[in-house]
Design a protein that fits this description.
By secondary structure, this protein is α+β, with helices and mostly antiparallel strands. It contains two helices and four strands, in the order E-H-E-E-H-E. A four-stranded antiparallel beta sheet has the order 2-3-1-4, covered by helices on one side. It is globular.
């Protein structure tokens, strides 16, 4: 069995990367994402709505320049008060 915690992700940067964002249904996702990435070119697509409609998930796609950039964006998104979960 492969232990994924010991494996290092090999990517060729810069590359497009997708983050899955989960927010409450009433959150303006475009405004929230803009607070994090400012004027960086990106795409936001709605993915799913929870069974009871309380949460929505979106796919955020953008160009990441290196591993530090990718991880830093993940952390900033994760800490944003409007975002409940980042995958």
């Amino acid at each position: 069995m492969i232990d994924l915690n010991k494996e290092k992700l090999e990517l060729n940067y810069p590359c497009n990367w997708e983050y899955k964002l989960v927010v409450l249904e009433h959150i303006n996702i475009k405004a929230t994402v803009k607070e994090v990435i400012f004027e960086r070119e990106h795409k936001v697509k709605e993915s799913k709505v929870s069974t009871k409609g309380k949460f929505k998930s979106y796919t955020l796609e953008l160009l990441v320049h290196n591993e530090d950039d990718r991880k830093e964006l993940f952390e900033i998104l994760r800490k944003h008060t409007n975002i409940k979960m980042v995958l």
